[in-house]
Amino acid sequence: MSKKTNHIMNPLQVLFRIVQGALIGLGAVLPGISGGVLAVIFGIYRPIMELLSNPFKNFKTHVPKLIPVIIGGIIGFLGVANILAFFLNQYPDPSVCLFIGLIGGMLPSLFREAGEQGRTKGSWISLIVCMCFIFALLIIIRVASVEVVPNFLWYLFCGFCLALSVIAPGMSFSTLLMPLGLYTPFVDGIGHFDVSVLIPGGIGALVTVILLAKAVNALFDHFYSIAFHGIVGIVIAATVMIIPVNSFLSVDTAIVNLICLVVGVICALLLDKFNSRVKVE
């Protein structure tokens, strides 16, 4: 469990937490990226989960420290939706390659975090099994060409996937929504504050947090290494499956995509380096 302290954050720490929250909110909505993974990398996943799993018990100790994160999360999540929808529609492949670069650059941090309590044979088995399962699931979805018509129930499902991407690091909600054709209308609805999208999405997210937060928190408490290595496997498989292979067949588009990949990796590594220098209690 995380240490509970009464330290008062200085302005730099508050600003840094807001930036972290904005990136988590950004990660929650960007394709292939998990807000939960970013929360883990930033070292604030545990207090978030402790608050969600026991809100009344941990309200006084956790909320003051997490308010800047919450503010930043709202800014990142809502502020990026319209911009994201534009770039995905106008420049889909370069945008996805930038996201892949971000994930690739963050994988070393994620792997390092996974081994914080040691690695066992079960850890590696978990990584391989989870990676193979996600590969199989996404290949089946892709081959079957499953696509649905968005409605209230499907937006409930979108909310479920969104919340899951925060409470279960590595589970990017776009992983399932993109193959189903739900990602773009969901993000577009959020960007335009469409209540027909926001209400069912919000309900789905809230119910998911209430039902699963305690279970996920307990899983990490008792099986940290196994659970975390499973997440690493999920991230690897989900990232590989969103690579726009066809866009690399042309020299011009391949160069643009590679540049976006490199930029994403560099940004992620710089972010990790900056994060390691700024300690927030």
Describe the protein's architecture and organization.
With 281 residues, the chain is mainly α. It is 79% helix and 0% strand. It is built from 12 helices and no strands. It has helices at residues 11-29, 35-41, 45-53, 55-90, 92-114, 121-144, 152-167, 174-180, 183-191, 195-222, 224-241, 251-277. Helix 3 (45-53) packs across helix 10.
Note the main attributes of this structure.
281 residues; mainly alpha; 12 helices; 0% strand; disordered N terminus
- Can you count the beta strands? 0
Quote the average pLDDT: 81
Shape: globular
Portion in beta strands = under 5%
What topology does this entry show?
Elements: H1 11-29, H2 35-41, H3 45-53, H4 55-90, H5 92-114, H6 121-144, H7 152-167, H8 174-180, H9 183-191, H10 195-222, H11 224-241, H12 251-277
Helix pairs in contact: 1-2, 1-4, 2-5, 2-7, 3-4, 3-10, 4-5, 4-9, 5-11, 5-12, 6-11, 7-10, 10-11
At a glance:
The chain has 281 residues and is mainly alpha-helical. Helix content is 79%, strand content 0%. It contains 12 helices and no strands.
